[in-house]
Design brief:
Blueprint: H1 7-36, H2 43-64, H3 74-81, H4 86-110, H5 120-149
Length: 156
């Protein structure tokens, strides 16, 4: 099937991906907020808040990953209608999986272990790299969707 995606289909699927993107971005903001809190003399509280926020971000990213058990999504519809976008869509999907893996790695580092000392500055640095990759991924995804559908996901 090559050709334009029906208008109503694009609107519905765009709403779905917009909501997923907003949930993931909100989770990232909560994690950044938790990480920016002072850690000295509050290390356990700081660590607990960061762990909860990292869990929420990981869950939000997981819901964005491709899954055969889910209904068709906007990027799937774009791939079906415009096969020339498939390599870029696959690249975006790999980036998203890599982000989920990076958050999982951060979660592992945060697991409380009395033998390990967790350096808040190191965790903040790791998140900074992850946040930059997340924002770059969102921009590339927005560009592809706009090129293929004319929809700006960041406009309301």
């Amino acid at each position: 099937m090559n050709g334009p995606i029906p208008h109503g289909t694009v609107d519905s699927l765009a709403d779905d991906i917009r909501a997923e993107r907003q949930t993931a971005l909100h989770a990232l903001h909560v994690l950044e907020y938790a990480l920016s809190a002072p850690a000295p003399r509050r290390h356990r509280t700081w660590l607990h808040r960061v762990m909860i926020a990292a869990d929420a971000l990981h869950a939000a990213l997981q819901t964005r990953l491709p899954d055969d058990d889910r209904p068709i999504r906007l990027l799937d519809e774009i791939a079906l209608s415009h096969p020339d976008y498939i390599p870029r869509i696959e690249s975006l999907q790999h980036e998203l999986a890599d982000l989920a893996i990076a958050v999982a790695a951060l979660q592992e580092r945060l697991e409380p272990d009395p033998q390990l000392v967790i350096d808040p500055a190191d965790i903040r640095n790791q998140l900074s790299t992850l946040a930059q990759a997340f924002r770059e991924h969102r921009a590339r995804e927005s560009d592809l969707i706009y090129e293929a559908t004319g929809r700006n996901l960041d406009e309301w």
